[in-house]
Amino acid sequence: MYVKVYEYHIPTDKIKEYFYIQEKASNIYRKYINSTTTYLQSNDDPTKWLEITTYQTEQDYDANIALINEQTEIVVLFQEFQALLPLENSQIKEENFTKTTEIK
C-alpha cells in the first residue's frame, strides 16, 4: 500500500473549519480513488497535525491525482486550507511511504 503523510499546524480555534474542508475534499477524492485518511493531533502541541492517507498503490495514486487536482472545488478547498495555517508556521511537510506490515 502507498501512504502519504502530511504534517502541518492548525490553530485550535480553526479545527471545526479544518474538518469541514477535509470532509469536502475527501468526498471529491472518493470519486476518483479509493483511500483512507487518519488525522492525528499531537498531545504535546495541539496545533500540530499528521494526515495519513493510504492508497492501494502508488500507480493508482499517480493515475488519479492529476484528475483530482484539476477539479475547481479542490483548488478552492486547498486555498481555504492554506488560509487556516498560522503565518508563523505555514509549512506543509509531505512524505511518502510504503506500508509493509501490520501487526495486531
Explained architecture:
The protein has a single domain (2-98), classed as Alpha-Beta Plaits. The chain contains 3 helices and 4 strands. It has helices at residues 15-32, 58-69, 72-84, and strands at 2-9, 35-41, 48-55, 93-98. 4% of the residues are buried. The model has no long low-confidence stretch (mean pLDDT 96).
Helix coverage percent: 40-55%
Number of domains: 1
CATH topology: Alpha-Beta Plaits
First-residue to last-residue Cα separation: 17 Å
The SSE string, one letter per element, is EHEEHHE
Biggest sheet, spatial arrangement of strands: 2-3-1-4
Class per helix and strand makeup:
alpha+beta
Per DSSP, what share of the residues sits in E-state strands of 2 or more residues?
25-35%
What is the number of beta strands?
4
Give a concise summary.
With 104 residues, the chain is of the alpha+beta class. It has helices at 15-32, 58-69, 72-84, and strands at 2-9, 35-41, 48-55, 93-98. It has a four-stranded antiparallel beta sheet with strand order 2-3-1-4.
